[in-house]
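*** Backbone structure tokens ***
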Amino acid sequence: MKYKTFLLFGAPGAGKGTQGKILGTIPNIYHFACGDVFRNLSIDSDLGRTFISYSSKGSLVPDQPTIQLWRESIEGATKQGRFNPTKDTLVLDGIPRNPSQAEMLKDTLDVRAVFNLSCLDMNKLVERLQRRALRENRLDDANLEVIRQRLATYEHETKPVLDYYGPDLVHTIDSTQSPINVLQDVLKIISGLSA
């Protein structure tokens, strides 16, 4: 069975987490943030150590453990009753991170829309990430060099996912707007899809 899915997409700091958390409060929408799952891994586990070794450099965790963790987490959420695949729409944030992961998930995800939260001002993204580092104690957002590496990794490895899904599914939204206006744009597209 394929999961009905919306993808939240954009560079680090574009607002995926903010929008995902809000959308996740709507009945029959289940928000899954891959980064949150990685950050909650025990550093005593193999996967936890793998995550730390990559994220501390601003690099992506390899595809195989990322997809494995995602599948295990979704199965867990289904067993716990937090995600009902027959009724709920999945909102993914932070996965797939590259075209290879998109390919690995193509038999699992029925992607209905990709919300590309676009921010062309890199300085604004850096500022948002540094504020978030202080507010949420996120070490992967604290170091300027790591932030710049994460943004470069996004440009080279993650952005090609937009081409993978193509222009019919990708909806570009200006993420420099206020979060409420970004949400309004996202909801307008979602309601148009279900009309």
